[in-house]
Amino acid sequence: MKRRGPRFALQWRVTFALVVIVLIPFALSYVLLDQIGRSAANYKANEARESIAAMEKSLDAYRDLFETTKRLHADIADRLARRPQLIALDPKTDLSAILDEEVAAQSHLRGLALLREDGTVVIEAEHPLDTHQLARLRDKVVDQPIGNGGSLRLTFAVSATLQDEYQNLNKMIDKLKYSTQIRTALPDGYRITFLVTIVLASVIVAFLGIVMSRRIITRRVDALVATARRVSDGHVDARVDLPGSDEMSELGGAFNTMLDDLAQTRSQIEYLQRMGAWEDVARRLAHEIKNPLTPIQLAVQQIVSSYKGDDARYKKQLADVKEIVEEEIAGLRRLVDTFRTLGQLPKVEKAPIALADLVEELRLDPRFAQKLVTKAPAEPVTVRADKLLLKRVLVNLVENGLHAGEEAGGSAEVVVAWRTDPRGDAVTITVDDRGKGVAEENREKIFEPYVTTKATGTGLGLAIARKIAIEHGGDLTVAPEKPATGGARFVITLPLRGPDASLA
Amino acid sequence: MKWGRVVVLLVLIASVAAADDNTVPETVKMRFVERGADLTTSLKIQKLFDAEAYQKLSSGFASTIVINTFVYPVDEKEPIAAHQIVRQAVYDLWDEDYVIRLDANAKPIKVKYQAEALKLLTSIDDMAIARLDQLPYGDVFSLHMTVLLNPVDKKTLAEVQRWLSQGTGGGLDRGGVFFGSFVSVFVHPKIADADAVVELRSQPFYRPKP
User: Fold this and answer.
1) Is B186 in contact with A196 (Cβ distance < 8 A)?
2) Average pLDDT of A13-29?
3) Each residue of A162-199: b (16+ CB within 10 Å) or e?
4) Quick one: what percent of chain A has pLDDT higher than 90?
5) Would you state the pLDDT for residue B169?
6) What is the structure's pLDDT at A164?
């Protein structure tokens, strides 16, 4: 036994093809996306680096602002501390005037106090902040020592939000650094996402490929293969059922048609083989039986004529014997002639025949003239057939039909109709009678030689008729359904197309 | 057999990766004292500030320290008590002193010198780590402490990550939002959790019966 190949080979091939079809554009997209991602990330990273550098310079500017402001405050404090009246801790010093001078000089000085060594205030002056200023300014105190142990306390109004702005700027830089780091990691993220997508898509496509190829192709191919195997195992009646309306269903239908044709051909070959065997037997019997008949007949006649006596009773007996022997010999001769007919069927010689003309010729036979009903199609049908043989078949079927009708006790009428099949491949000639019909179990048997249901039949007529039909490339069968006439329907099928040669 | 080797290899790789992620905490001797209803500890956190971090104290930016404490029964993986303290130091660029908050609700402390600020930030004095009723007499526990210097603000990080991977969202960008969410699952930037992390583990301790 041959080893069978991998069962799902076709299925896996289809799935593999689908996955490859999906993977190719994905792979190209992956490469493209990777490049785009890298370029975009590099571009943005450079942009961010430049922004960070600019912001860090701003931080330096903030720091410089703090330092410069503080140096300015120190300078003012140093300058004021050099004033003699302040060094002298003179309580009559007009601090307000000094303060006004500084305010006029936009030094942001808003308070001055002269302190003794122990920290007690000698004199002080202040410019209060209004509500609006309070919201955005805060005090910065500078204590400047003066020569005599005392000190000068200067209160400057400085920005209350400057350090917050400075810190916020730093936070922004941190944020930008994070975003740069994340952005650098983004291409990897996209790459992994894309790979995951590819894998998911491949898995889905593979799953769908398996399911769909199984549903659409392989399951039906399996059914086809299984049926072919059953047929090869001898189950000639096995057929495949492939529902749908696609090529696979069409293939299933063609496969079944091929099996039908094979079964029919096989049946016909077997039939012809059987017929061949019968023909051989018939030829031998005809030869062996026919030869002694004449001597027997002559011998009997001689015995009868040689009696010269006058025994009337004996004469009568001899005359009866002679009559019986001659009658039986005549019967045997007819039988031998029939045998010879079976064994000496002429070779089929096909020629175009108009079926309507052939059937009309049957009407010329006085036996059929009044009892034959024909139903011709609108379009005339011409077949390639041996006219004599085909006529013989029709005569046989019409004769049988008339006998069947008479035996059934009804009107002896036979209906002959013919029509081409819808595809124009064959013509079907039906011969319907008004007899009792053919029992289902006899539908095949009646075509076997020497099988007859008639009292006087030889059982060779239908066998010869079917042989002729088969030799024309067609067949003769009994239809399972009853015709409108109520009796049997014999169906002759003849090909209109295909090779001319018959099976004979 | 072949698949078995692959599995073993994957397990080994995973183990190595996991080992990289888990730093072994340093075991230090800690002092535990019962104060009222709490068990407290005191210690000095070493190795948190390097030179750069120390310098940054005077930059005018906030330096933040997050101290997480977990009390574990010995040989168990679930802590029975967890506390967190957030400390912050900011150098006031106008007044030129350090403003330190030892806890979110604590009053700010002003110190003049950087070393003082460092000492305050890294000294833990009588910090409550668990309620006494959580610590049955005789049971053995250990304290795990994780100290982070300037931890990354997760909210900020998440916001930046979302902004980068999802775009602005809405309208025609909705598909992008979905894709961005999907992508963000696989984006793992190499951003450290903090400027510095110190992990400490105490010696095993127990409450003796009075």
Assistant:
1) yes
2) 85
3) bbeebbebbeebbbbebbbbbbbbbbbbbbebbeeebe
4) 20
5) 46
6) 92
> Under a CB-based contact definition with an 8 Å cutoff, are residues A230 and A259 in contact?
no
Q: Mutating which of B88, B91, B93, B98 best tests the A interface, going by the most A Cβ atoms within 10 A?
A: B93
Q: A189 contacts in B (CB within 8 Å)?
A: 165, 183-184, 186-188
Nearest in space to B164 (alpha carbons), one of A53, A31, A177, A197 = A177
Asked if the Cβ–Cβ distance from A185 to B188 is below 8 Å, we say yes
* Nearest C-alpha in A relative to B186: A189
> Is the CB of residue B61 less than 8 Å away from at least one CB of chain A?
yes
Q: Which two tokens stand for residue A214?
A: 């199984």
Q: How many residues does chain B have?
A: 210
**A238: helix, strand or coil:** coil
Distance (Å) from the alpha carbon of A211 to chain B's nearest alpha carbon = 27
Of A163, A183, A193, which has the smallest distance from its Cβ to B93's Cβ?
A163
Q: According to the model, what pLDDT value does residue B10 have? A: 45
CB-CB under 8 Å, A183 with B183: no
β-bridge mates for residue B38, sequence order = B35, B131
**ipTM of this predicted structure:** 0.76
**Listed range (A283-287, B67-71, B126-130) with the worst mean pLDDT:** A283-287
For residues A344 and A282, is the Cβ–Cβ distance under 8 A?
no
Residue B5: how many CB atoms within 10 A of its CB?
Answer: 9
Gap from B171 CA to chain A (nearest CA, Å): 22
B/e letters for A332-366, b = 16+ CB within 10 Å, e = fewer, are: beebbebbebbbebeebebeebebeebbeebeeee
pTM of the model: 0.56
CB A396 within 8 A of CB A406: no
B10 touches chain A (CB under 8 A): no
- Residue A228 CA to residue A234 CA, distance in Å, equals 10
**Smallest Cα distance from A130 to chain B, Å:** 21
pLDDT(B166) > 80: no
How many CA atoms, within 13 angstroms, populate the side-chain half-sphere of residue B157?
15
The pLDDT of residue A500 is 47
Q: Record the tokens describing residue B95, joined without a space.
A: 């007044």
Lowest mean pLDDT among A478-492, B124-138, B179-193: B179-193
pLDDT of residue B163: 67
